[in-house]
Amino acid sequence: MSETKWTREQNLAINEKDSNILVAAAAGSGKTAVLVERIINKVINEKIDIDKILVVTFTNAAASEMRERILDAIYKRLEDEPENAHLQRQINLLNKASISTIHAFCLDVIRNNFFEIDTSANFRVGDTTEIELIKQEILEDLFEEKYEEEESEFLNLIEMYTNYRSDDKLKEMVLDIYKFIQSTPFPEKWLKNAVEKFNYSTDVDFAKTDWGKIILKELFSQIEECILKLEKIHRETAKFWELDKFTVVLNQDIENLRSLINNNLRWDEVFYLINDFTWKKWPVDKKVTIDLKNEAKEIRDSVKKQFTKIVSKVMIYSSKEANEDINKMYQTLQNLSNLVLEFTEKFKQAKREKNIIDFNDIEHMALDILVNKENTIEKTKVAKDYMQKFEEIDIDEYQDSNLVQEYILSSISRGNNIFMVGDVKQSIYRFRQARPELFIEKYNKYKLEERDIKTGEKIQLFKNFRSRKNILDITNNIFKNIMSQEIGEIDYTENEYLNYGASYPERKEKSEIYVINLNEENAEDYEEIYNEEDNTNERIEDVVLEAKFVSKKVKELLESGIEVYDKKQGQRKISYRDIAILLRSTSTTAPIYEKELSELELPVFSDSSSTYLESIEIETMMSLLKIIDNPMQDIPLVTVLRSTIGGFTDNDLIEIRLADKKCSFYEAMLKSRIKVDDDIKAKITKLLNNLEKWRKEVEYLSLDELIWQIYLDTGYYHFVSLMPNGNVRQANLKILFEKAREFENTNFSGLFNFINFIDRLKSSGGDLSSAKLIGENEDVIRIMSIHKSKGLEFPIVFLCNTGKEFNMKDLNENIILHQELGIGPKFIDTEKRIEYNTLAKEALKIKAQKEIISEEERVLYVGLTRAKEKLIITGISKDSKKDLEKKKELLSTYGNKIKSNLVEKYKSYLDWIELVYLNEDLNELLDFNEVNKKEILKDLKEENKKEKNILKEINNMATEEYSKEKIEELSKELEWKYKYKDSTVLPTKTSVSRLKEESQEILKNKIEEKNLEEDGETKLFEDLENNVPITLDKPKFLKDNKITKAQIGTLIHMCIQKLDENKCYTIRDIQNFVNELVVKEIITEKESNNIDINLLYKYTKSKIFEDLRKAKKVCKEQAFYINIPATEIYNNINSNDNILVQGVIDLYFIDENENIILVDYKTDYVANGKEQDVVNKYRKQIEIYKRALEEATGNKVFKSYLCLANRDWNCYEVK
After folding, report:
1. How many CB atoms within 10 Å of residue 529?
2. How far apart are CA 215 and CA 206, in angstroms?
3. What is the DSSP code string of 1005-1028?
4. 1115 closest CA partner among 1187, 1206, 1207, 1193
5. 791 burial class (0-12, 13-18, 19+ CB within 10 angstroms)?
């Protein structure tokens, strides 16, 4: 393997020291590789012990990769220097080296110094579900307490922020503020300071406040835009002497507007100038017939409208009035702040009593240990000890750090030993309160490639080793036009350009953009609607149309035989895994794309969040649980009655309701038994008996056992398998069962609490993960959000749904929060029943909107830079021609320069890309295609007709007459079979776990080809073409990473592997053990939710665990390879081939009598009495394990066992 050739800048980043260093690394520049190489260099060449370096990574995967690469480098050097004691020591030190996420490091700080903050040593990290339940319980109790006390302050908040139906809005506000302030180093202090900003003298000039400065800057910017528009038409009218009188008016308008722009004016001076501003009367001269006269009037009228709009928002108050409104909100915010702080304290107390902490606590508790906050922030002794310990602190993805993390890492640094790697253009986690400003501040302050102990050194990595030159040129052209200090928070100059550094074979390649033109007559009205801040709605038929177009393009691309470059294989034909479809958001859109690709028989993995709780099978089961708890609920009851569980028809329900129209449906059902026919009566009796049975079982069965019993009693679990996507629906029901088991293990339990938890989760917009049956690592097309794609790369990228407008709905909330500006509330007067935005809120809206758009620019940057070889962009336009014409006009107004306020005017990626396309000559780089909606539908209809014609031809051929000789000749040719056909479908290499699956696949290959089916799409195409609203089937519930049954088995195996046989465990110990795995990011939180704590606890009490304590030697997870004749694996196979089988033996141990005992764990669900069936099912697998173990050890296996998890870990001998 050739040695890596580092660029000059990369070498600098690897070797520079003695000052804080910021590496600004562009996308694809190898920043992570540089960081890893720097660590290796420190350890091997500078002789620094690996445990003297703190490495903070963004993910556990990155930490694991670093450990592996460091270990590989050490082993490689040891081959040359086998006696090197320093290198040998590093192998041992690597296991305890601080290479982890910030949370894992902070947890280590707490565990080692818990006594510094008066915390118990045996605390545990609470499960997210448990933490949410505690929050809700504390909030409910707090509100109940306030209601009882009848505090006027609290009741005022209730009146202001809730409606007569519920107080949920105020509860949500408390939780939102609490969540927000947790991202600040000192939450209580931040909140108090933010509120105190509203307590100041009304005599202060509002222009001098932070809010006033922002508003005036925005006002002047809007006025400048008005001037630009007037100047443009003024230049045109000045060319015609007949239009002199109009030109004079325009000139006067320009001068009057310009006089308003003065940064030195007080607020009231601007206020009175604006309010006294008058527009000169537009001349009337019917003799002038030049069309430009009317055009000039239209432009002037639009400018007046724009001016009035901005003025009516922010210039309706004098300085005193603005201050008074803000002052009046002080007491309200004080009350709200007190409520939040009271909740915070009670929440802390509840966690303390349960001896648990949450993820926010981890960072804040570590900060409490590391800094003194009494008077000034200073380092504690613990922080100084860490400072002495760590020679260097390396931070990956620094642009995504928040202020708490900055304080923590700064507190343990020496002031000149922090190495930060990141790219501010890829900072896309502001919604998690990431602070790109931290990166930008150092980027502007640090000196380029100049070592400076006081200031710090900046190194830029600008070469991109990922993408072809065409993609880099497209990206550079887009961002040099749209990204600036004002919007994007950094100027995209040549210093920021992505420079080509890869070594692809020569190939002329263009990127492509397809704008789907809907040609809608009412597009202008539609655009007006979408210019409002709550612009997140999309018409489902538009998304379907784009998804159909993209799916067709993907299929064409695959059939074209296009090749991609592979570092290992060179040029090769593309496969499914080479293609990624990136979307800004996936919750509603990804299922549609997944459905369309699947209908073209293309394998696809959709990495989207799921509407699991809205799936029909979960809705039905939750409704049933609700009526078991309380049958006096009409909607859940009718849901169950109308489902297959109840079996009632619509007419049956009418009959029941007619028994009594006024009472509850349950009471009507009871009364109707004497009136309805025997069939309905039998159904009612059956349901009532079942409800009575299940209510009794609630008293002694755990929640998960109750749910499984309901599955068995109703047959519903098996019924859903017969529905479309039945295997997914079954998996969803299994998740509900497992979620109930997990819920039982929290401090909460019981049917009512579980129903309440699910309802709250649903009402808050939360969800659970739905089932996934295809893994992301398989050869499939991937659909994912741009956020999920960060750090990944794909040969071919489709960047889709770019016409979707940005989500601005958060700007409409009653209160806006901002890290620097604090709180922006509405003014609410409950007595006068009026409410409106304070200027503080208007200022925060302006600031927040710019930050949202800046973030969207960075998200687009990430999306474009994922592509290695080909980039295809798609989006929908209501009327493409009109859109482009308007953009041309605006560009002309701005002097054909894309300025920041022009960028801010547009709210979609497609708009920005079109602006750049119109402003730059991109024809050599980008194929711009406008696709008509009707053309897409016509193509799809033609394909549908072709399929039908093929079927017709086949049917016609079947009816034609042929001679006997011809038929015999054809039969002979058609019936010829290759002698060793079986060998063509055999794998050359396989795993033990796939043996059964592959056997089935071989059988499938012997079955006749499937009959062609009509897909029935013709009507759908006609409806779409004629703008007839369509009703779509509910999309598959494959929208998020689902932990599959196999993955759960793997998780259980992994836990068993890590459990210590010499330790005696309690339930709490097992829970802490799993939580530790999450915190250390060995497993994800989602995975931990699928681990059955009781199951692991039972394992530690099982006979097999006891046998392992006594064993002389225990070996876990032993990998092997073995050659086995195909005929021994597959029955009735005609082949002389061998198959290389790989596998992992779960466990073998040598007992007290020196016998080898082989054990294989199985987490399958096994019904009582069916144990031997499972033994028979896995007999062949165990035989292979036994054979491999005997070949490896040279000794006979004494006994082989299957250890069944759901049979209390009892072992069954496989003979």
Report:
1. 11
2. 10
3. HHSPPPPP-----HHHHHHHHTT-
4. 1193
5. middle
User: Which residue from 876, 884, 688, 891 is spatially nearest to 800, judged by alpha carbons?
Assistant: 876
Smallest CA-to-CA distance from 102 within 63, 56, 60 is with 56
In the chain (1215 residues long), the average pLDDT of successive 10-residue segments reads 79 92 92 89 90 90 85 87 88 89 93 87 82 87 92 90 84 93 92 94 93 93 92 92 92 92 89 89 86 90 89 87 92 95 94 89 93 76 94 92 92 92 91 87 89 85 92 94 91 91 85 88 39 54 91 93 85 92 88 88 74 78 92 91 90 88 89 87 91 91 90 89 78 85 76 81 57 64 91 94 90 90 90 85 93 94 95 92 90 87 91 92 89 81 60 53 63 63 65 59 39 39 44 40 74 87 85 78 78 87 90 87 79 73 88 91 82 87 90 89 87 90
**Percent of the chain as helix, strand, coil, to the nearest 5:** 55, 15, 30
Residue found by looking up tokens 């896995």 in the block: 1178
Helix (H, G, I), strand (E, B) or coil at 862: helix
User: 907 in the Ramachandran plot: left (φ > 0), alpha (ψ -120 to 50) or beta?
Assistant: alpha
Which H/E stretch holds residue 565? Answer: strand 563-566
CA angle 979, 980, 982 (to 5 degrees): 125
Name the residue among 914, 870, 929, 879 with its Cα closest to residue 549. Answer: 929
**How many residues are recorded in the chain?**
1215
Write the DSSP assignment of 888-951 as a string of letters: HHHHHHTTS---HHHHHH--SHHHHHHHHHHHS--TTTEEEEEEEHHHHHHHHHHHHHHHHHHH
Phi-psi map region of 424: left, alpha, beta (phi>0 left; psi -120 to 50 alpha): alpha
Per DSSP, the three-state class of 876 is strand
Please give the span between the terminal C-alpha atoms of the chain, in angstroms, as a whole number: 48
Residue 156 structure tokens: 């005022």
The answer to whether 425 and 790 are in contact (CB under 8 A) is no
**CA-closest candidate to residue 386, choices 414, 358, 406, 362:** 414
Cα gap 191→184, rounded to integer Å = 10
User: Comparing C-alpha atoms, which of 615, 586, 638 is closest to residue 726?
Assistant: 615
Q: What's the Cα-to-Cα distance from 218 to each of 213, 271, 539, 855, rounded to whole Å? A: 9, 14, 33, 19
What 3-state class would DSSP assign to 211? helix
Helix 839-864 to helix 469-482 angle, to the nearest 10 degrees? Answer: 170
Please, are residues 535 and 948 in contact by the beta-carbon 8 Å criterion?
A: no
> What is the residue-wise DSSP string for 1062-1093?
TS---HHHHHHHHHHHHHTTSS-HHHHTTS-H
Q: At residue 984, what are phi and psi to the nearest 5 degrees?
A: -70, -20
In the sheet where 21-25 sits, what is the strand order?
Answer: 99-101, 53-57, 392-395, 418-422, 21-25, 457-461, 447-448
- Angle formed by the axes of helices 703-714 and 751-763, nearest 10°: 90
